[in-house]
Amino acid sequence: xxxxxxxxxVIRPDDNGTFxxxxxAISGCHAWGQTADAARSELANVFDMxxxxxxxxxxxxxxxxxxxxxxxx
Length: 73
Fold this sequence. Notes:
It is globular, with a radius of gyration of 13 Å. The chain has 73 residues and is α+β, with helices and mostly antiparallel strands. The longest helix is centred in the middle third of the chain and has 21 residues, at 36-56. It has one domain (4-56): Double Stranded RNA Binding Domain. It starts with 9 loop residues before the first strand and ends in a 17-residue tail after the last helix. The chain has a 3-stranded antiparallel sheet, covered by helices on one side. Helix content is 29%, strand content 16%. It has one helix spanning 36-56, and strands at 10-13, 19-22, 30-33. This is Type II toxin-antitoxin system HicB family antitoxin. It comes from Stenomitos frigidus ULC18.
């Protein structure tokens, strides 16, 4: 069984002073928090719920994706 640590996680500041955390490989796996740590903690809860939904549907979680990072110049 896969865990959140098997996935690339992106955490970035949001426009309103909070942070957003998400797993690009899993649609809908995203969360917000007042701090980066709070967003990551909430993301773990969201991941657990999504993982349970996949298990109940008899589906495997998707494979991780590779992110390409481009420098803004």
